Amino acid sequence: MTERYSGWTDRPTWALNLWWANDEGMYEQLRDVILNTLHEDEDEDGVTGDTENAVDVAASFLEDDFREREAAIEDGMMRDMIPDPNFREVARSWVDEEVLQMRRSDLEAAGHSAESC
């Protein structure tokens, strides 16, 4: 069993999150995937529904991108040394943050303080 790393399941999971968060293009791409999925699941009142679907979609997106990039590593030498990150954990973190930001925006639009979130 691997030890937790900086609050994440393990170092590869922490590194995946760091990698996506620190590249503006990748950051915006993942946010778009999450926001589009969350908006698709909104009810008629604009309330975000099933966040688990957004987590599933985002985790799949992260894993697909990871697999494409690892395939580009010559002969897979590096691939054999790196365990898979926990894609769902990273996706859950990003979805939770987006939902929190949406709720803050809704509160601010309604004239309430965002600090109450």
Quick overview of this protein structure:
This protein has helices spanning 11-21, 24-40, 51-71, 87-109.
Which properties best describe this structure?
mainly alpha, 4 helices, 0% strand
Number of domains: 1
Quaternary structure type: single chain
**Count of helix runs:** 4
Largest sheet: none
- Strand/helix succession: HHHH
Class by helix and strand content? mainly alpha
Whole-angstrom Rg:
16 Å
Shape by Cα distribution:
elongated
Low-confidence stretches: none
% residues in beta strands: under 5%
Distance between the termini: 35 Å
Write down how many β-strands occur, each being a DSSP E stretch of 2 or more residues.
Answer: 0
Query: Averaged pLDDT, please?
Result: 83
Helix content: 55-70%
Task: Describe the protein.
- Helices cover 62% and strands 0% of the residues.
- With 117 residues, it is mostly helical.
- It has one domain (11-103).
- The longest helix has 23 residues, at 87-109.
- The radius of gyration is 16 Å and the shape is elongated.
- The model has no long low-confidence stretch (mean pLDDT 83).
